[in-house]
Write a structure and sequence with these properties.
The protein is α/β, with parallel strands linked by helices. The protein has one domain: Rossmann fold (3-Layer(aba) Sandwich). 23% of the residues lie in helices and 21% in strands. The strands form two sheets. Strands 1-9-8-4-3-2 form a six-stranded mixed beta sheet. β8 and β9 form a beta hairpin. The longest helix is centred in the first third of the chain and has 16 residues.
């Protein structure tokens, strides 16, 4: 990854607060799709905004791409950690083995579960507008009134099934943010139950 991205990756002030606010609102409203700030540099892969906005020298990161990892390390001074113990994880091409290797915390320390960023092709929070692609899921749990239907395009249904409450026995698990190339983002916290409907 080009070194000229280092400046844009080091966000601060109002822009940093806007990214933080977007990520916070999505985790508080699971299944709601929001858009990252337009001022972010489009050359930086969208999943990287999770660690770029939320980590620092005291918070370990596992980024499963050498160039992406170098950018995050240089911009945030975050130490590199193994997948199994990293507080923040970015997986550009996630596999089931990787998903199963993410830290989920323990019954006594559930807060040790990771915060995970995954790329997807599209997020559709109005399944009536879906076009027969992707998989549609019913989301239920805290932050959702009754239920919410969401279509996720570009992520294996078997991986989606390992998110939310599927990421670990209560109260363990990890929180996940899904990012599209256009900058749409949606969160699936560890307390959200997903059921595939199509």
């Amino acid at each position: 990854m080009s070194t000229d991205l280092l400046g844009p990756a080091r966000i601060s002030g109002d822009l940093s607060q806007q990214v933080f606010d977007t990520l916070l609102r999505t985790i508080a409203e699971p299944g709601t799709v929001r858009r990252l700030p337009e001022a972010l540099d489009d050359r930086i892969p969208k999943p990287l905004w999770l660690p770029l906005a939320l980590t620092d020298v005291d918070v370990g990161v596992h980024v499963d791409d050498m160039d992406w990892s170098r950018l995050v390390r240089t911009a945030t001074s975050s130490p590199v950690r193994p997948l199994s113990s990293a507080p923040f994880v970015v997986l550009p091409t996630p596999t089931l083995d990787q998903i199963d290797g993410i830290a989920i915390g323990t019954a006594l320390r559930p807060e040790d579960g990771a915060r995970v960023a995954l790329p997807v092709e599209r997020l559709i929070d109005s399944p009536d507008h879906a076009t027969g692609v992707g998989s549609t899921h019913r989301l239920e749990g805290p932050g959702i009134r009754d239920h919410r239907l969401v279509t996720i395009v570009g992520l294996e249904p078997a991986i989606v099934a390992r998110l939310g409450t599927g990421s670990g026995p209560r109260p363990t698990g990890f929180d996940t943010w899904l990012f599209t190339p256009e900058g749409d983002v949606m969160a699936i916290p560890r307390t959200t139950h997903l059921t595939e409907t199509s």
